[in-house]
Design brief:
alpha+beta, 328 residues, 8 strands, 4-stranded antiparallel sheet
Length: 328
């Protein structure tokens, strides 16, 4: 599949050389048009030259873009402008992800070439962006990266050391880049060179880089109290009170994630991941020690409780997200 970019492309049109002569005097009056979809940017006109210098910059919004279009025109005062040449610039092979500027010379279909500098800015900012914003942009309650990873991992719940064994860094980075480029088209499966450890590590990486932990310090005391409680009614009250302290998107993610981790623990005879092992693996990812509200022991106790009592959360999961968890 071609790489599709969604974000902002900063385009610097530097110059051209060896353009086609379109006027009777052996020159052209060239200007350059750069476009993607309906977005279109135009440089100034350079008079009587086949080697114009523009040094003009502008931003071009991209939406699932695989290429940008480049057209050089010859301005005419009286008649219709003539086309000096055109080209399509594929974006997939330019290594634009990461924000580094890329310089290139683009050959036109007639003659000559245009010098550009391109710099991609990912507007999705998936890793490190707050959860409500991601969900709003994707129009989903659960981010696609979470659901896609969980859906694939759910097919391999018997994998030994699931979430404990680290993945391969290059494979994790390749998956990360795919989601940065476009979460909708990113593929998460074991047929593309990644294995389950890579996918599990990607999910933990995403969760770890959220600006606020999935389980912030303010919810830990309520969950720790629920973990030690005996009255089922009070346990449910504490769990609901804890989830009321986070955003609706975070509450949905907590429910989704811990129902999944409960399923992982249910296969402990094969994957060797007991609830205790899972809680230890995820404590640094999902919680943050806050001296004013909790401690490491409380964090782990809260995680262990939610893994074991995921039944308290299942009703919060929308029908549209149940398939990836294989819920009835």
């Amino acid at each position: 599949l071609p790489i599709m970019l969604t974000g902002t492309l900063r385009v610097q049109v530097i110059s051209a050389r060896g353009l086609k002569a379109c006027d009777w005097n052996g020159f052209s009056d060239p200007y350059c048009i750069v476009s993607s979809g309906r977005a279109r940017k135009v440089t100034s006109v350079q008079m009587k030259t086949l080697d114009p210098t523009w040094n003009e910059s502008f931003t071009l919004p991209l939406r699932d873009a695989t290429a940008i279009s480049l057209v050089v025109m010859d301005w005419d005062r009286v008649s219709r402008d003539d086309k000096c040449g055109q080209a399509s610039v594929p974006l997939g092979g330019l290594n634009l992800v990461g924000g580094q500027p890329v310089a290139l010379d683009v050959a036109l279909d007639t003659q000559g070439a245009v010098s550009l500098v391109l710099q991609f800015q990912d507007e999705q900012c998936l890793f490190g962006l707050d959860l409500p914003t991601v969900c709003m942009r994707e129009r989903r309650r659960i981010p696609q990266i979470v659901e896609k990873c969980v859906a694939t991992i759910t097919e391999h719940l018997d994998h030994v050391g699931l979430y404990r064994v680290s993945g391969c860094r290059p494979a994790i980075e390749a998956l990360r880049v795919a989601f940065i480029v476009n979460s909708s088209t990113a593929q998460v499966n074991t047929r593309g060179g990644a294995n389950i450890n890579d996918i599990a590590s990607l999910l933990k990486l995403y969760l770890r880089e959220l600006p606020e932990p999935v389980l912030p310090g303010r919810v830990i005391p309520l969950l720790a109290r629920a973990a030690s409680g005996a009255d089922e009614s009070k346990i449910r009250t504490d769990v609901n009170a804890a989830l009321d302290l986070v955003s609706p998107q975070a509450a949905a993610l907590i429910a989704y994630l811990f129902v999944h981790l409960h399923a992982v623990a249910a296969h402990q005879a094969n994957n060797k991941m007991t609830p205790e092992n899972i809680a230890i693996c995820f404590a640094p990812t999902l919680t943050l020690l806050d001296p004013g509200t909790g401690n490491t022991a409380d964090n782990t106790r809260a995680l262990l409780f939610l893994i074991r009592r995921a039944d308290l959360l299942a009703a919060r999961i929308d029908v549209e997200h149940r398939a990836s968890l294989r819920m009835a």
